[in-house]
Amino acid sequence: MSKETKEDLNADMVTGEPGSHPVGTAVGGVGGAVAGAAIGSMAGPLGTLIGGAIGAIVGGGAGHASAEAIDPTREEAYWRAEHANSGYSKESYDFDRDLHPAYAVGYANRARYPVDAHFDDHEADLKRSWEEVKGDSNLAWDEARPASRDAWNRVS
Questions:
Q1: Looking at the chain, which terminus has fewer C-beta neighbours within 10 angstroms, N or C?
Q2: 31 close to 18: Cβ distance less than 8 angstroms
Q3: Is the pLDDT of residue 9 over 70?
């Protein structure tokens, strides 16, 4: 598709699909994130983090969501199935208590940063997020970091 045709169709820069509305997506996403975080707060800090991510997707849909938006439910299912295959998962780790919050820190926070952002450049923020949402996890940040990094990279 030529550049002129893309401009005429208001084509999405990534997919080339017509009808891209980045401002609407952004506005809807921010509003949805706030609403999702508020609803998720009823389930505690981890609920706030994941609720914000879900809200951003739903709100972005109202403004024309991108196909690349993360799906926290799909991410949880993926990591639940795959965590045992990682080099850092230990038998003493409980997925729900220890690893799910670590993965969520990576995938739910990823959208807060530019597309070309690197995990290491934002690790201090991610560590703070871990401390806020880890709940009953026995993992220190150094133990949770590999799972968070994997989840960040998967949705990048």
A1: N
A2: no
A3: no
